[in-house]
Backbone:
């Protein structure tokens, strides 16, 4: 059975490995697995608020914080979610028993960005409501995902692309990239519905893709039809079917609507 001293020794090894540049992520992962097993043999519950009990709580919290950051570094999204689920009880339920963590709001802000990148907006707002008002207003780690959510609500996608170069911590890059992919998908879906055709150059500009090859790869990914005129063509088959079925094309429908409005104005 592991003692607090044994777990503390493992944690020191983990902390040393995590602080190295470059980090050996495989080694950190092995140490995390050992510590997680060892922690199950400790109480780490705020039962009697003794010094030893508090050390257990702090140790468990610090391990989980490194675990969450490690999960992001190895791009293991499910592991990150598990670590954050465990961490939140230390941040919220045990906060009266522990000194404040320097990583608390960085990781809670990162969790907000994670939820936003997964389009889990209801959970995003639920987690946001758990934070103090002064933190929501001033903390840079929390303000970043809040601003992004506001940009999404406004449809200011260009501001989201610009925000990629202004993340508050390196760990935010993973979920920022995921969010950008989601936004790019929304823009692409709008392009498919709004245009009969669009040039590669214009499509790249709207999707914030930096090169000709990038837009070609993206178009291939979405099964877009690239014509000899170097433009992507959409809805050609739908327009043909609509015409065959006697459905008015959009331009003719617009003309009729304008004509109806003109007659209505004359009547009024």
Residues:
């Amino acid at each position: 059975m592991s003692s607090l001293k044994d777990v503390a020794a493992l944690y020191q090894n983990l902390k040393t490995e995590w602080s190295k540049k470059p980090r050996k992520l495989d080694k950190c992962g092995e140490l995390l697995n050992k510590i997680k097993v060892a922690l199950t043999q400790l109480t780490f519950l705020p039962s009697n608020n003794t010094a030893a009990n508090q050390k257990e709580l702090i140790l468990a919290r610090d391990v989980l914080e490194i675990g969450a950051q490690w999960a992001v570094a190895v791009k293991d999204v499910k592991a990150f979610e598990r670590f954050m689920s465990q961490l939140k009880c230390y941040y919220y339920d045990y906060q009266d028993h522990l000194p404040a963590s320097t990583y608390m709001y960085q990781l809670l802000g990162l969790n907000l960005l994670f939820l936003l990148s997964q389009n889990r907006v209801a959970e995003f707002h639920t987690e946001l409501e758990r934070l103090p008002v002064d933190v929501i207003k001033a903390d840079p780690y929390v303000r970043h995902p809040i601003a992004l959510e506001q940009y999404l609500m406004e449809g200011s996608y260009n501001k989201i692309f610009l925000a990629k170069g202004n993340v508050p911590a390196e760990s935010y890059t993973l979920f920022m990239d995921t969010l950008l992919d989601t936004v790019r998908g929304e823009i692409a879906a709008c392009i498919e519905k709004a245009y009969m055709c669009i040039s590669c150059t214009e499509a790249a500009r709207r999707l914030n893709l930096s090169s000709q090859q990038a837009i070609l790869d993206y178009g291939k990914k979405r099964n877009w039809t690239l014509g000899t005129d170097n433009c992507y063509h959409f809805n050609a088959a739908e327009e043909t079917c609509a015409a065959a079925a006697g459905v008015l094309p959009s331009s003719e429908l617009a003309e009729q609507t304008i004509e109806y409005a003109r007659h209505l104005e004359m009547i009024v």
About this structure: Confidence is low (pLDDT under 50) at residues 239-244. The first strand starts at residue 197 and ends at 199.
